[in-house]
Each structure stands twice: as structure tokens, then as C-alpha cells.
Amino acid sequence: VERQAQVDLESSLDQKFANMEALIAENARCLKEISEIITVLFPGIEGTPESVQPSMAGNPESVSSSTTE
């Protein structure tokens, strides 16, 4: 019984890791799309979302208002 429980646990963990890897891949794809959209909307801004973020972080109100529209 204990052996079966361990096998079930390992199988569950493997599934969770596979799900997590799929989510990470999806996040990376979304970040790439967001980066492309930012490049189109703001042609003067070069770089990835990481390089854009610090200027946005200084003014939380503008970030929250822009995401709710």
C-alpha cells in the first residue's frame, strides 16, 4: 500500500511539473506578444517588457488605470 501511495505521489508530482512547465511556456509566449504590442504602440521604446517595467513601476496609478480600460 505504501509503495502504491509513493507511485501515486510521484505521478502526481510529475503531472504538476508538466503543468507548471506548460504554464511557463505560455507565459513566455504572452510576454513575447506583449513586447511586440508595446513595440508597435510605442515605437520609441526599445527592448523587452523588463526594460519598460521600471518606468511604469514608479507610477502605480497609471498602470492600474491603463489596465482597467
Automatic annotation (TrEMBL):
Q: Which domain of life is it from?
A: Eukaryota
Record protein name field: Uncharacterized protein
Write out the ranges of the annotated region (Disordered).
Answer: 48-69
Q: Which residues fall in a compositionally biased region of kind Polar residues? A: 50-69
